[in-house]
Design brief:
Layout (H helix, E strand, L loop, with lengths): L2 E5 L6 H10 L3 E5 L2 H6 L2 E4 L5 H10 L2 H10 L4 E4 L1 H4 L2 E6 L2 E4 L4 E7 L7 E6 L17 E6 L1 E3 L14 E7 L2 E9 L2 E4 L7 H13 L3
Amino acid sequence: MARVVVLDYGSGNLRSAERALQRVGAHVEVTSDARAAREADGLVVPGVGAYAACMEGLNSVRGARIIGERLAGGRPVLGICVGMQILFERGIEHGVLTEGCGEWPGTVERLEAPIVPHMGWNTVRAPEGSKLFAGLDADTRFYFVHSYGVRKWELEAADHIKPPLVTWADHSGDEFVAAVENGPLWATQFHPEKSGDAGAQLLRNWLTSLV
């Protein structure tokens, strides 16, 4: 049984993530303890609310350092919703720029769609070879609730490095990054823990990557 830590840094949605992971067979601990977070088979970084508030909470438990140390050792991390957004370089909300973890270049910004927030079920366009979406049909829907996202993927390709697999979604004509698979670092803008059977399959796929 995979040992998973859901990082508690003051953001909401911790218990729903815990329950969803338990249902697919993980042993789950919700904690801010750095040692437990470093040593777990997998680390989940959830997040809801404002980018700046999430970064403040993350910094209060040295979360960016924990994430960086895990990735340096090739140890899996899964970011969810704002927990994905804070992995990028920066976020801009109401004209205020906040530095993120910087694992990927790019800016989290307000969606440019007629109706915001983007709330409800939507399909995604996963790339060929995705392990995160293995076993899921192209018309599978996931649950989103957000007003901000990454609308431009800025990481340049390098000849000697395998490029990340980037999944996209569309909200009223505005495209944004819906998920990323980058070595041990995976992330989703949508909420797998709120996405029913499809979300459960996705979490199983992530757990499979831990062993």
